[in-house]
Amino acid sequence: MVWLRNPKKKIRSILIKIGQGRVSEADIASLMELLDRDPSAVPEVLGALAGILNKDNTKAYSSVITILNMAAEKEPELVAGILDAVMGCIRRGKEVPEDWILGSLEILIKISQKYPEKLGCVISDLIMCLENMSVSVREKSYFLLAYLAILQPGVFNGHSKDLVRALNGLNIDERIYSCRLIKKIAEKDPKIVESTYGILEDLSLNHLDSNLRSEAAYAVETLNIIKQKPSGSVKANKVTSEKKEKIMASCYLIKDMPEASDINFSELVELIDVNKKDIENILNGLGLEHMIVKK
Fold it and tell me: Contact, 45 vs 74, CB < 8 A?
C-alpha cells in the first residue's frame, strides 16, 4: 500500500476527514492499523480528536467516539488524558443522541478496568447521568458508579450533595440506583455518605413506591449496622494494589488472552468482600459478562 510509505501524511488526511464528518469505516480501520504500526503517533492523534470534541463539532462526534473506544481498549491511560473532552459529550445531556452518551460511557468503562482512580474527577457527571432521560444511560451510569464504589470508594468523597440530589430525582430507578450506590459506599467507608441518612430514612418510611422503600431501608440498615459497631472497628475496605491486580486478573479475564490469570471467581469475591451475585450483576451491566471467571 502506497500510504504505508508515508503514514503520517495518511494519518493527517484521515483526521481531516474526521473533522469534516465524512470519514468512512475503511478510513477508521486504516487509522487504527497505522497506530498499531506506530504507537508513538497515538498521543498526537488523541490530541487532535480531543480538539474536535472541544470545538463542539457534532458532525464528527460519532466517528471520534468510535475511534476513542477502539483506542481505549489498548491505551486506556492515554485516553484518560483527554477525559475532559470525552466528558464534553456526556455533559451536553439531552442535546446529543443517546448513542453518543452510551459510547462515551463505554470509553469510561474501558478506562476503569485498569485505572479506576482516574475517574474520580467525573463522579459528579456520572451521578448527573442518573438523571438522564434515557433508561439505558441511567442504567449504564449506575453500574459504572457501583463498580467504582467497590474498587475506589474514596472517589466519592465530597459528593454527598450529588447523591442527595439523585435521591430526590424525578425517576424512581434513579432514586433506587442512588440508594444502592450509597449502600455500597457505606459498606466500604460510611463516613462518605453519612449525611444521606436522614433522607434515606424518610424514603424508607414514607415513599409510595415499595421498591424504593425497600432499597432505602437496605441502605439505612447498612449505615445502622456500621454505627452500632464498637468505635475503631469500622475501617474502609480498601483494595490494595496487589489485590487490585488479582481482581483485574480474575474479573477481566479476556477470552483471547491465554496468559491471563487462573484465579477463580470465588477468590475475587473474597478479595473485595462483596456478594458474588452483586458483582456479577455489575459486570453484566457494564457489558463485561464475558470477563467473569467461574469454576
Answer: no
Residue 172 C-alpha cell reads as 424512581
Burial label, 203 (beta-carbon count in 10 A; 0-12, 13-18, 19+): buried
> Between the CA atoms of 136, 142, 146 and 151, what dihedral angle is there, to the nearest 10 degrees?
80
Please state, in angstroms and rounded to a whole number, the distance separating the CA atoms of residues 253 and 168.
38
Q: Categorize the per-residue pLDDT at 200 as very low, low, confident or very high, splitting at 50, 70 and 90.
A: very high
Helix (H, G, I), strand (E, B) or coil at 273: coil
Q: Which residues contact 248 (CB under 8 A, 6 or more apart)?
A: 113, 114
Q: How much is the pTM?
A: 0.76
Separation of alpha carbons 200 and 182, rounded Å: 9
Confidence band of 93 (pLDDT split at 50, 70, 90): confident
Our measurement of the distance from residue 284's CA atom to the centroid of its chain's CA atoms, rounded to an integer in Å, reads 13
Nearest to 123 by CA among 82, 92, 166, 187: 166
Chain segment 144-196, per-residue pLDDT in tens: 999 999 999 999 999 999 999 999 999 999 999 999 999 999 999 999 999 99
The CA distance from 232 to 200, in Å, is: 25
Could you identify the residue written with the cell 475503511? 26
Q: Report H helices in the chain.
A: 7-20, 25-37, 42-54, 58-74, 76-80, 83-91, 98-112, 123-129, 135-151, 160-167, 172-188, 197-206, 210-228, 241-251, 265-272, 276-285
Q: Which residue has the cell 460519532?
A: 62
Q: CB under 8 Å to 83, separation ≥6 — which residues?
A: 111, 118, 119, 121, 122
